[in-house]
Input
Amino acid sequence: MLILGIESSCDETAAAVVADGRHVLSSVIHSQIDMHREFGGVVPELAARSHVEQIEPVVARALAEAGVGPRQLDAVAVTYAPGLIGALLVGVSFAKAFADALGLPLVPVRHLDGHVAANYLSHPGLEPPFLCLIVSGGHTSIEMVTGYTSSRSIARTRDDAAGEAFDKLARALGLGYPGGPAIDRTARGGNPDVHRFTMPRFSDSSLDFSFSGLKTQALQRLASLPEDGAALRDFCASYQQAIVDQLADRVWAAVHQEEARAVAIAGGVAANRALRERLSADGGRLGIPVYLPEARWCTDNAAMIAAAACPYAREGRWLEGAELRALDALARDPEEEAV
Output
């Protein structure tokens, strides 16, 4: 089964052709990072305009690199939620027109399900059930993946996402955008034990995350931080370690609670060196396999969207005709809206 995936939820215009939900024939990504860097974050209007300019050539290149003609496709998949509404609308509108013109079925994909499915690209033998930590700039959650088209929410952030916590400190330190990789690079060689931060606990024993308090603690300490490279490395290493500790703490508590036999991670922060090392070490000690997607599948891409769509397409769970044309983009996560 050949599926064309389209992703435009934030600041990457992406298209990919994936066979049978596992084999990537092409993956094309036009990144807007350089454009947004001077603003210290994504400017929604600029992002949407860039998507309009890039969507057609990116899709054409993905088809050409895969050696696949439009009429050889079995379905089209597109991210429809959550994300920047203007950015999402570009991808959804293009996908609808493309599929409708060719008489192809359309599979709308929740962005977070795409991140989970990125693990299938790096680990073709991975099968549900498994516990998945989804951690990115806009989302931090734990889901119990019970099937290829089903999952159950275990925990989510009550305020900032982990990626936001990285971005905000990096901005305050003048390290640039995106913040996660900048903090990770600066933390190399630093001592993570120099600064101690309080781990949030909830009275209801929830496994939910919270990073706003950590961010506040860090910003308050910046005024007294010595202006030298070693102090900056130690500070970034300690801050990064506090984020990793909270993520790992919740993951292993969830593993125990759900009696999970495997763990996967997904999302942009899943590329973080310290997080990958910590979860791998913990998994080895506990005898729990930990699946880490390749770094190229951690950030937003269209191959993961096509991979997530494949089981839906096989079950005939797609949109055609009037339903296809009625599809709309959603800024909020539909799973959260249903709670």
The longest strand covers residues 23-31. The mean pLDDT is 95.
